[in-house]
């Protein structure tokens, strides 16, 4: 399945094919924030809401070819923001992500006891996960079913059409006998995985980068100078500008290093006995890589708690968001590393660069942005 995701869905050719959809979403973002500024009483914009829904809109567009579940929400216009179904969707995706990352007591009960406690759901996580999966499936299933029906019809007539979105890719795959390769359950699971894999990291990194820049106006000035030099004031920043926006990429790297979405990576299991840095790791161990431990390690990073994008410029001539040496975790590395590096980088950078270029951000009077805050960042345009 990982091969399908890497070579069919997240391939360079598919990424090019959905370029227009990504560009349109970046334009809708500007309209949405502009409308928020004009409608909200104190011009305050909830950056977390904006960033999370940009990612939600983007990934629904790329997977399903549409950003809204209901016709009514779509008819309200592209700058109008999410309708109730889109809000329920993004809430469910984030709840699911948080449960994937969190520790569950039952995972650490000795195997011999599990038959006794099976079904007890000691910490209640199973119940929450089931409930949000119900929401996600309620919203996804009709779209998947309709698409399967369409492609089965095409196959029957010996017809084909080009895959227009990620769901098309999943549904159109066929075996050597020309039958649909993936079952409904497999397509359902992959669709959900791609959705929740896309929403958390880009939105969190951009929110934190902006928050840190509120505290350090000189960093904001440098980023704006770079945008003015590379892009200018006569056009909006595009994906093709990203390779030249090294300072902005350094800001996002710094946000990944200092403020990862979650303290740990998803658990891996050791397939064999192994020795890492002198530590013996027996086969079957759950291995939890600490993102905070790596990113804030004072043996590696000078003044690790300070937000200093410059440190990434000193290390690289061409800044990228990946960190293959794992001095901090962005996309991780190796066989289980993230297959969505290219898409994830462009989604994150477009969100960040458009918010910076399109608006002047200040803290509301009296507000203090604390770098350990879990409250959504509220800033004025
Ligand atoms: C800034 C954006 C992103 C970041 C920082 C990021 C980061 C990560 C990280 C840290 C992992 C876990 C790696 C590990 O367990 O060692 C991961 C896994 C994964 N990511 Fe991403 N990701 C991003 C965007 C995306 C996007 C856009 C997609 C797909 C559309 C994606 C798909 C996946 C998948 C399928 C996995 C599971 C891989 C596996 O278990 O084999 N990610 N990502």
From TrEMBL:
Output the PROSITE patterns linked to this UniProt entry: CYTOCHROME_P450
Which InterPro entries does this one have? Cyt_P450 (IPR001128), Cyt_P450_CS (IPR017972), Cyt_P450_E_grp-I (IPR002401), Cyt_P450_sf (IPR036396)
Cofactor(s) the protein requires to work: heme
Residues engaged in binding heme = 338
One molecular function GO term is: heme binding
Q: Which family does it belong to?
A: Belongs to the cytochrome P450 family.
| Gene3D superfamilies registered for this protein in UniProt | Cytochrome P450 (1.10.630.10)
- The protein's name: Cytochrome P450
Keywords assigned by UniProt, alphabetized: Heme, Iron, Metal-binding, Monooxygenase, Oxidoreductase
